[in-house]
Amino acid sequence: MPAWFIPANGGRPGPGVVLVHGWDSARDRTLPNARFLHAAGFHCLTFDVRGNGANPPETMPVSAGEYGADAAAAFAVLLARPEVTKGALVGHSLGAAGAILAAASDPRVAAVVSVSAPSDPRRLVRQTFRLARLPFPGPVATPLAWLTSRVYVQPRGHSQRSISARHAIAIYEGPILIVHGSDDGVMPVEHARRLADTARAARASSHGGDTVELFVVPGGSHSWLYEDATFRRAVAAFLARSLGGPLTPEAAGAAAAAVDARRLPEPEEPLVGERGARPARAMVSRSARRPEDSLDRAATPR
Length: 302
Known about the structure:
Layout: E1 3-6, E2 14-20, H1 31-39, E3 43-47, H2 64-80, E4 84-92, H3 94-105, E5 109-115, H4 121-131, H5 138-153, H6 165-169, E6 176-181, H7 190-206, E7 212-217, H8 229-243, H9 249-257, H10 278-287
Parallel strand pairs: 2-3, 2-4, 4-5, 5-6, 6-7
Antiparallel strand pairs: 1-3
Helix pairs in contact: 1-9, 1-10, 2-3, 4-5, 8-9
């Protein structure tokens, strides 16, 4: 998988973060997150999930299962870097579901930040019906959503349970921050509350596990939450508490909040296939110590 590794703190040993983009997206969309995390002292690795970015199109469906497998592969590459002492996963939307799945499969994941995640496949499909304004009444829409999601994931050999963020979050025992916009019209904030409730219930029943934090960004939408300084502060401080690093949680939060993180211009070309990298390279070079050591293509296993 195509990837960029962005070292922080002069390349000295320290914690790192894998950034997992959302549906029909690419690694350059995560660069605003990389900017503020880099300022807070975290090495960053961002990559293209299969079927996205510089990868060729897939002939089979891509679901949270594929996002999870690719996030797990990217995380293994992150930990293999000599600069990285421990690592976390930060994902957005379907990438957040993938981050949770990857964390549940690898005890080395020291923390997870889930942003705008769908809680499970059936509710994701049900919400898709609403967004498409399909006129299915409730008694029809719910079983139809279950059937549709089941059929969609079958070619890859998945079950709905195996690719459910809600199921995986009950398995993962590390610290997790669940972030959602209060006005998310794509994936309503109830998904975040459902994930947080499930994680807390699982930890209460097992009398173990680290903290589960829920942060709802007032007025926040589905995307671009990184443009809100309170979001940047909360994410960076949480990661500093969970991973350590060169800055205290308070200092990491302040450094992240001070970054002017803005969305990149929307691409004119489809988000599958090689795309122009000038906006991405410009953003990375501004946040790196030297432009020549800020980008590194890392080949991760498929």
